[in-house]
Specification:
Number of strands of chain A: 2
Strand content of chain A: 5-15%
Oligomer: homodimer
Chain lengths: 115, 115
DNA sequence: CGGCTAACTAGCTAGCTGGTTAAATAAGGG
DNA sequence: CCCTTATTTAACCAGCTAGCTAGTTAGCCG
């Protein structure tokens, strides 16, 4: 059961930005606050906040509340959705060559029969 | 050996468009000309041509020449690059929980020792 | 050659994106 | 209650994107 097309749109679009990919990679190692996520970047906090909103809207992250902190959490499901789409295309691609191989074996077989 | 960041930028950006994903999915089944690729879409040919240029620039497709046709061919390497990035994040994520499991087993072990 | 088909380039527009600064909101803590 | 810290919202700007139409290039074929 593949995820919806517009979900894929927003997920791939989110992953197209290097800052956002770095945030995702950071969150794969564990939850973090906005300030922690912002630290490695030469970018204003509102800039990071915008990126987080993009990631949240496509479901790649979720945010809870802890006092005045809003810890971010990576949601694997959205990541899986994107990976699944690519995997499906690669599967179709591979099948094509499997069939080609099979065909070539059939031809080989015929040749053997006639020898 | 991961692919370059800006290559990932453009690959994910290319995959963020549903028309382009459909084109990629179509090409996974086999090469096709521009007109063949355009057929399923309610879009002008130059529009499709632009999408193909986007796909070509990020390496997802290549084009050869055959008379006045320019058959498009899916390049799996770029698709692999994107899949690899996602896979790496998922791996890091999983390791985290593996370590957590290990830790929980250690605690359990200690408990057993003291019982 | 002249015409047909395939595909691309040019030039335009509306809308989105990624960034900024300045100001606002939220919540703990003396 | 005021101060500080964490984070968001507002307002703005430059640049990119996806789409269009119209015109152009490339190459087959009669």
């Amino acid at each position: 059961m593949a995820i919806a097309a517009d979900q894929l749109d927003s997920t791939f679009a989110a992953l197209a930005d290097p800052t956002r990919r770095a945030i995702v990679a950071r969150l794969a190692r564990g939850d973090a606050t906005v300030n922690e996520l912002a630290a490695p970047f030469a970018m204003s906090l509102p800039g990071i906040s915008k990126h987080l909103k993009v990631l949240e809207r496509c479901g790649l992250i979720s945010r809870s509340r802890n006092a005045q902190f809003r810890p971010c959490h990576l949601e694997r499901v959205a990541l899986d959705g994107a990976a699944d789409w690519i995997e499906e295309s690669r599967r179709i691609w591979s099948e094509r060559f499997d069939k080609l191989d099979e065909h070539l074996r059939d031809i080989q077989q015929e040749g053997d029969d006639h020898d």
